[in-house]
Specification:
Layout: H1 23-38, E1 42-44, E2 50-63, E3 67-80, H2 83-94, E4 99-101, H3 106-121, E5 129-130, E6 133-139, H4 143-146
Parallel strand pairs: 1-4
Antiparallel strand pairs: 1-2, 2-3, 3-6, 5-6
Length: about 150
């Protein structure tokens, strides 16, 4: 049995409301773990025609929306891919170029697509696209997240 962290909540006792972290942070962790374990920075969806590229695992930014202090994030570039691009990618994967499957279940792959689109919409319009890729910043866990 696998437990997917973005789908669980924790409580220390029955008197306290269960606590969960935003799926954005867990998905950032997923990408960090994936690049550490595979050496790859590009991933493709197994359920949806999406390609992601972990462009930078450690970006600091400030946002008046989220927090007045700088936030550490993972910069993800992503795009929808056509069937022709999928066939080309599949041949590259067979040639052992570093493009790996996301390996997420359907519900989390759909969550990822929504999270990336939402994060992209929060960026200033001039920063939302880099060449043919959409840009998203997924916040990482911080020490403050671990404090009670």
């Amino acid at each position: 049995m696998k437990l997917y962290k973005p789908l669980i909540s924790l409580s220390t006792d029955k008197l306290h409301k269960p606590h969960h972290f935003p799926s954005r942070k867990w998905l950032a962790c997923y990408f960090l773990s994936a690049i550490e374990n595979t050496g790859a920075r590009k991933f493709h969806g197994t359920q949806h025609p999406i390609e992601t590229w972990v462009f930078s695992p450690n970006v600091r930014y400030a946002s008046s929306v989220d927090s007045p202090s700088p936030t550490t994030a993972v910069k993800i570039l992503y795009r929808a891919v056509t069937e022709a691009q999928q066939r080309e990618r599949d041949s590259l994967v067979r040639e052992q170029l570093h493009v790996h499957e996301l390996g997420l279940p359907l519900v989390l792959e759909e969550e990822l697509i929504g999270v990336l689109a939402e994060a992209n919409g929060e960026l200033p319009s001039e920063l939302r696209v880099f060449q043919e890729w959409n840009v998203a910043l997924l916040p990482r866990f911080s020490q403050a997240d671990l404090s009670p």
